[in-house]
Specification:
Length: 532
C-alpha cells in the first residue's frame, strides 16, 4: 500500500461500542467507589501487584496503584478490541495513510527499523523504499555528527527550531548529557523573543559555532526569524558568505527553501514524519552530536524494541495499551482532566514539556476522523516537573486538593552520577509520594492535616538513563498516545488547531507599527494601542 492508496479506517468509535456502555455502568456501580487502600489490605495485595506490574523493553511498570481492578481492566480490553486498536496499529505499521486529513502515512516507527537484511520484517515496496532512504540519510547524518564531534574548532552547536524541531532533541540531549564530549556545548533556541537568541549570541564566536536550522517546513515564523537573525549576526561579526555555508546546516523536508537560504549542507526527511515524532530523523542531529553515532543507534534500537513489543504483545500485556486504557478510564469515566508527569531524574527534566506537545497536539481534538463533533473528552492536560522539586511546589494540591490528578512517577535504578546518599534519597521520595497518595492519612482532630488517600499513580522504572532506555521510554509514550487516539476515533497526526493564531498574528504585526485598529474587536484594539 502506498501512502496515497485508498484506505478505509478500520476503527469503531469508542462510544459506539458495547464496551463503552458496559464501562459506564461499571463506573456507576463499582468503579467510581473503588478503594485503593482496601485493594492493598490483606493477602490479595501481592497478587494485585504481580498482575498490574510488567517488564516491557527497558521499562518496568507498576500500575497497581491505579483505580482499577481486573474486572475494570477486562472491560477496557474489550473496548480496545471493539474499537479496532490492533487493526489500526497494523495499518500504521503497514504505511497506510492514517493521517488522512493530510493524506499521509505516519511512519516515525520506520526511522528506527533495522535495515533490510538486518532482521527487518518484509514490507510493502513503498515502505521498503522508504526504509532504504531512511538508512541512507541516517548514515549521512551520523557521519556528519561524528565529523562535528571530531572537529575541535567547533565548540558550540546551536539548534534553531520550535515544537517538534526543538522539544524532542532538547529533552534527549539533556537526558543523555553524560555522553556529551567535553568542550562541545549544545544550545536550543526556539522562542521568537530576542532575549533568548540575543543572550546566547553574546556568548558565542562565529568561527567556533555551528547553527542547525531545524524545521520540517522551513517556513515556521519563529525559526526563520531566529535563523535570519543568527545569519545577520554571523556576517556582522566578520563571517564571510563563504564561511556561512560551513556554519549553517539545515534539517528539513523543504530542500529548496534551505538552498534559497544559502545553506549547502542539508539533511532531509519525509512528510510522513510528524514534527512531534521527528527526533528519530535528521531532526535528531543535535542528539547524535551529543551522544555519538553509536549512542544514536542505541536510542533507535531501544525505540525499535518498544515498537516490537507494541506490535506483538497481547493487549493485556502490552504496556502502551495498558497505559492508554488507564488514560481513557480516567479521562472519560472518572472525568479527571489532567495528568502529572513527575520524573525523579534531573536528566528527564524536559520530559513533561516534550510530552505536552506529543500528547496534547496529537490528541487535543474535538472531532472524529469523519469530522463529527465528539460527545466525550480527549487528551487531558499533561503537566509536571521533576521530583523532588514538584513536591515543594504543587504536590500539596495533588495530596489535598479536591481534584484527583493521576501522577506518573519515573525513576532510575542506577543514577547517572551519584553523590553520597543522593540517589537513595531521590528514589525514596518517589516511592514515598506514591505510597502517601495511595494510603493517605487520617487526622480526626485536625482536618487541615488529613490526607484523603486513594489518589492514583503509575510508577515507571528504567535501569539507567541510557540511550536505549530513553528510546524505549519515548516510543512507549508515542504508542500510548496512538492507542488513546485510536480509541477516541480521532486523527492523532494532524495539528490544524495551531493554524488560526498564526494567521491572526500575521495580520496584527503590521498594525503594531501603523497603529491601525480598524475592524478589530475592542479588546484587541485596546491592547494594540497600549503596545503601540
Ligand atoms: O518543524 P517546523 O515545520 O518548523 O514546525 C515546528 C512545529 O510547528 C507545528 O507545526 C505547530 O506548532 C508543530 O507541529 C511542529 O513541530
Amino acid at each position: 500500500m502506498s501512502a496515497t492508496a485508498a484506505y478505509t479506517d478500520p476503527r469503531t468509535r469508542c462510544d459506539r461500542t458495547l464496551a463503552w456502555g458496559r464501562l459506564a455502568a461499571h463506573h456507576a456501580d463499582a468503579g467510581q467507589g473503588f478503594d485503593l487502600r482496601a485493594a492493598f489490605d490483606g493477602p490479595q495485595a501481592a497478587a494485585r501487584v504481580a498482575h498490574f506490574s510488567q517488564q516491557a523493553p527497558h521499562v518496568f511498570a507498576d500500575l497497581s496503584k491505579n483505580l482499577i481492578d481486573e474486572s475494570t481492566e477486562a472491560l477496557l480490553l474489550e473496548l480496545a478490541r471493539e474499537c479496532g486498536v490492533e487493526a489500526y496499529r497494523d495499518a500504521m505499521f503497514a504505511g497506510a495513510p492514517i493521517n488522512h486529513t493530510e493524506q499521509r502515512a505516519a511512519m516515525h516507527w520506520l526511522l528506527r527499523a533495522p535495515a533490510i537484511g538486518e532482521g527487518g520484517a518484509p514490507a510493502a515496496p513503498f515502505v521498503a523504499q522508504a526504509l532504504r532512504e531512511v538508512h541512507a540519510t541516517l548514515d549521512s547524518m551520523l557521519a556528519l555528527a561524528e565529523q562535528v564531534r571530531a572537529d575541535g574548532a567547533i565548540t558550540d552547536v546551536v539548534n534553531i527550531g520550535i515544537g517538534g524541531s526543538d522539544l524532542g532533541p532538547s529533552m534527549a540531549v539533556k537526558a543523555l548529557d553524560d555522553l556529551r564530549p567535553e568542550g562541545k556545548r549544545l544550545h536550543f533556541i526556539s522562542n521568537v523573543d530576542g532575549m533568548e537568541l540575543g543572550s546566547l549570541l553574546a556568548t558565542l564566536r562565529p568561527g567556533s559555532t555551528l547553527f542547525l536550522i531545524a524545521s520540517k517546513t522551513f517556513t515556521t515564523l519563529e525559526t526563520m526569524t531566529n535563523a535570519r537573525a543568527a545569519r545577520a549576526w554571523f556576517l556582522a561579526q566578520g563571517g564571510s558568505e563563504k564561511a556561512l555555508a560551513r556554519h549553517f546546516w539545515a534539517l528539513t523536508t523543504n530542500l529548496q527553501a534551505a538552498a534559497e537560504f544559502g545553506i549547502e549542507t542539508t539533511l532531509g526527511f519525509w512528510d510522513w514524519v510528524g514534527g512531534r515524532y521527528s527526533l528519530w530523523s535528521a531532526i535528531g542531529l543535535p542528539i547524535a552530536i551529543a551522544i555519538g553515532a553509536e549512542g544514536f543507534r542505541q536510542l533507535l534500537a531501544g525505540a525499535h524494541a518498544m515498537d516490537r513489543h507494541f506490535c506483538t504483545a497481547p493487549l493485556a500485556r502490552n504496556l502502551p495499551v495498558r497505559l492508554a486504557l488507564l488514560d481513557v478510564w480516567y479521562r472519560n469515566f472518572h472525568g479527571f482532566a489532567s495528568r502529572c508527569v513527575a520524573p525523579y531524574s534531573h536528566g528527564l527534566r524536559r520530559l513533561p514539556a516534550y510530552l505536552q506537545q506529543l500528547e496534547m497536539e496529537s490528541n487535543g481534538k474535538g472531532v472524529d476522523a469523519a469530522g463529527e463533533p465528539l460527545p466525550y473528552a480527549t487528551a487531558p492536560v499533561v503537566w509536571g516537573e521533576p521530583g523532588t522539586n514538584g513536591q515543594h511546589a504543587f504536590f500539596q494540591m495533588i495530596h489535598q486538593g479536591p481534584d484527583v490528578i493521576p501522577v506518573e512517577f519515573i525513576a532510575l535504578r542506577r543514577p547517572g552520577r551519584d553523590l553520597p546518599d543522593q540517589h537513595a534519597r531521590l528514589v525514596a521520595n518517589a516511592l514515598a509520594q506514591a505510597k502517601a497518595l495511595m494510603r493517605g492519612r487520617g487526622s480526626p482532630d485536625n482536618p487541615h492535616r488529613a490526607f484523603p488517600g486513594n489518589r492514583p499513580s503509575t510508577f515507571l522504572l528504567l535501569d539507567a538513563l541510557t540511550p536505549e532506555a530513553l528510546g524505549a521510554l519515548i516510543a512507549l509514550y508515542e504508542h500510548r498516545v496512538f492507542t488513546c487516539g485510536a480509541i477516541w476515533g480521532i486523527n492523532s497526526f494532524d495539528q490544524w488547531g495551531v493554524e488560526l493564531g498564526k494567521v491572526v498574528a500575521q495580520g496584527l504585526e503590521p498594525r503594531l507599527a501603523s497603529g491601525d485598529t480598524g475592524g478589530l474587536d475592542a479588546s484587541t484594539a485596546s491592547l494594540l494601542q497600549q503596545l503601540a
